[in-house]
């Protein structure tokens, strides 16, 4: 009896040791996961901050360039009006009054006025204002064409404005100063700029005085940037550093506390090529880390789920110490498999083989003969990923007619609000496949995958499974991973689309053109037409009417190309050169469409030279393009030799 009691004691002690080791190991794992989660959160915050700095730089620089372009356009407009005024004998002729009254908003200017000797101002409504004490004709005339800093409006003395002056000269003498009024309160709307979708604030600062010309964070208050010296600055930044940078015309970031928002503002400033102006954009910290906060909440939720899973694991471990079962071991392996699937899907939007491996992993977990993930519509690519036990992995493809009908019925079923579909027999399958189903399908489990907005972005299904009743739950547990894959894929596609688009015309750019020549167009080498288009007269329009008119010409040509051909393969490959690939249309149709394009552009006063090369079987895309280009140059030569170019441009002007 004593020996048996000692044996039981030893076994109990051994079980206690196993339990203690398991508890210690699990506790360490929990601590490591918590520490890793905090580390990931800090890293995400760092990445979001760097993205904020990059975006602030791009948006601020874009705003500065916009203002410079608008100022240049305003200067041209004022000089044209000044040239008209110089033709009149009397500077206060009634016709000039009419000109002032008829002026509509152009660029940054809301109205135009005349400053005359004697410091009198002619403004809209045939009003004459005595501006002595406010404006000096002699001072402004001595400066010539220029833009002032912040001044009071003589029409509304409560309003701050900037004046854009150009002289009106007769017989070598300045007889008046024409100026456009730029109302500072409306300047952000005039330059058509809304940073961070309305979440950011715009500032224009006088680098000499520190005065705010524009401050959308405190609209209507005016103020001075140096007053921010009393505010709390983030570590590594100082008011003196910011003041010196603004004064010296540097481009820098700074982070300081906002008394209005009660949080830090991320602030970036850079000089504009106007006077000593500096433009700046700020964005609240809550906006900067908005994406990070969402990820943080998700990670915290995931951490809580993991902690809950570990609590279940503790209970399972207590039972495992008493009796080792294969069922529990299989569950542990399943968790590892789910984790492997999650890791594979994390960057599957960039490495498509990871999706194949993830589906194969799911097929072995359940097990199933076929696993498919379908992405409906165009938003996420409209593609089908599949794994078949008999055929192996398949690359991303568009679903065939039968598969598209199959997935379409499942989609309608889920759109009605059903959570999952599980059919173990023919009768259940017929509940949604009433007109029949695929012959090799014996059972089917499918779950909808939804995005952050609750919209269905994919369907995950398994066919001919050997698993038990938990198969649907297993698929549902991986919905979040597939949802994140869809989100990453959408973002990846949007970034790729932006990278492939020409900024001016919104057609595909040369980068996309070169890639399609290697990857996509070789699929369409039968019955293919290459259309090489060159815009006639772009150089002359740029020289005589300005690059703005040249840009309008190119955008008009691109728009008509898009309207006429209505296909995917439209490229702007150079300054005034466009290439169109027209598959499956035939040579006659290609010529007909080109004729319509030339006709529509001719009606708008623009002309193009077109080279068409159609081949039934394309042996070399490079040779085909060269042939089309050669024909285009021949057309261009005939156009200019005939003298039509100059006559038509003259008629259009």
TrEMBL record:
GO MF annotations, alphabetized: diguanylate cyclase activity
Keywords for this protein: Membrane, Nucleotidyltransferase, Transferase, Transmembrane, Transmembrane helix
CDD domains hit by this protein: GGDEF (cd01949)
Lineage top rank: taxon: Bacteria
Keyword Nucleotidyltransferase: yes
Record-level GO cellular component terms: plasma membrane
Membrane spanning residue stretches: 21-44, 301-321
GO biological process: cell adhesion involved in single-species biofilm formation; negative regulation of bacterial-type flagellum-dependent cell motility
Pfam families: GGDEF (PF00990)
Annotated GGDEF domain residues: 526-653
EC number: 2.7.7.65
NCBIfam families from the UniProt entry: GGDEF
Protein name: Diguanylate cyclase
The organism of origin for this protein: Candidatus Lachnoclostridium stercoravium
């Amino acid at each position: 009896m004593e020996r048996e009691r000692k044996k039981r004691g030893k076994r109990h002690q051994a079980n206690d040791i196993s339990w203690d080791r398991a508890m210690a190991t699990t506790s360490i794992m929990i601590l490591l996961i918590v520490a890793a989660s905090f580390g990931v959160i800090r890293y995400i915050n760092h990445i979001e901050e760097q993205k904020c700095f990059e975006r602030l730089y791009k948006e601020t620089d874009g705003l500065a360039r916009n203002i410079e372009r608008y100022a240049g356009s305003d200067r041209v407009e004022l000089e044209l009006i000044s040239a008209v005024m110089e033709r009149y004998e009397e500077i206060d002729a009634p016709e000039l009054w009419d000109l002032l009254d008829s002026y509509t908003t152009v660029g940054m200017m809301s109205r135009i006025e005349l400053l005359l000797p004697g410091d009198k101002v002619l403004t809209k409504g045939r009003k004459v204002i005595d501006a002595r004490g406010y404006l000096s004709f002699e001072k402004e005339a001595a400066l010539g064409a220029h833009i002032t800093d912040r001044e009071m409006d003589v029409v509304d003395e409560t309003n701050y404005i900037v004046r854009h002056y150009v002289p009106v000269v007769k017989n070598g003498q300045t007889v008046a100063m024409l100026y456009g009024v730029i109302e500072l309160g409306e300047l952000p709307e005039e330059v058509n700029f809304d940073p961070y979708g309305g979440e950011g604030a715009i500032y224009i600062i006088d680098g000499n005085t520190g005065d705010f010309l524009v401050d959308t964070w405190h609209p209507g208050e005016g103020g001075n940037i140096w007053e921010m010296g009393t505010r709390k600055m983030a570590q590594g930044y100082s008011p003196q550093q910011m003041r010196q940078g603004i004064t010296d015309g540097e481009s820098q970031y700074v982070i300081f506390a906002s008394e209005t928002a009660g949080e830090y503002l991320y602030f970036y400033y850079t000089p504009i090529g106007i006077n000593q102006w500096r433009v700046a954009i700020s964005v609240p910290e809550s906006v900067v880390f908005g994406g990070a906060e969402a990820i943080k909440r998700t990670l915290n939720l995931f951490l809580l789920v993991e902690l809950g899973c570990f609590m279940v694991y503790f209970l399972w471990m207590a039972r495992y110490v008493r009796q080792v079962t294969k069922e529990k071991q299989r569950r542990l392996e399943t968790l590892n498999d789910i984790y492997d699937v999650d890791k594979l899907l994390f960057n599957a939007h960039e490495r498509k083989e990871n999706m194949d491996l993830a589906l194969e992993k799911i097929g072995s977990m359940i097990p199933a003969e076929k696993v498919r993930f379908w992405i409906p519509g165009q938003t996420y690519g409209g593609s089908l990923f599949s794994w078949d036990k008999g055929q192996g992995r398949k690359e991303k493809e568009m679903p065939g007619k039968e598969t598209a009908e199959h997935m379409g019925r499942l989609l309608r079923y889920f759109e009605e609000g059903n959570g999952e579909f599980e059919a173990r027999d023919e009768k259940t399958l017929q509940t949604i496949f009433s007109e029949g189903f695929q012959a090799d399908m014996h059972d089917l489990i499918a779950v909808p995958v939804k995005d952050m907005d609750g919209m269905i972005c994919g369907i995950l299904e398994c066919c001919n499974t050997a698993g038990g009743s938990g198969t649907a739950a297993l698929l549902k547990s991986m919905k979040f991973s597939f949802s994140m894959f869809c989100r990453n894929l959408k973002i990846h596609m949007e970034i790729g689309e932006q990278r492939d688009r020409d900024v001016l015309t919104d057609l595909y750019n040369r980068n996309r053109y070169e890639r399609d020549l290697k990857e996509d167009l070789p699929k369409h080498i039968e019955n293919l037409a290459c259309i090489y288009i060159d815009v006639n007269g772009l150089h002359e329009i740029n020289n005589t009417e300005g690059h703005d008119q040249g840009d309008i010409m190119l955008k008009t040509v691109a728009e008509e190309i898009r309207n006429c051909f209505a296909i995917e393969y439209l490229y702007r490959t150079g300054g005034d050169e466009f290439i169109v690939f027209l598959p499956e249309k035939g040579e006659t149709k290609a010529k007909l469409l080109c004729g319509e394009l030339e006709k529509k552009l001719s009606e708008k006063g623009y002309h193009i030279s077109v080279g068409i090369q159609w081949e039934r079987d394309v042996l070399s895309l490079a040779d085909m393009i060269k042939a089309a280009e050669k024909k285009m140059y021949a057309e261009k030569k005939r156009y200019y030799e005939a003298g039509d170019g100059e006559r038509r441009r003259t008629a259009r002007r």
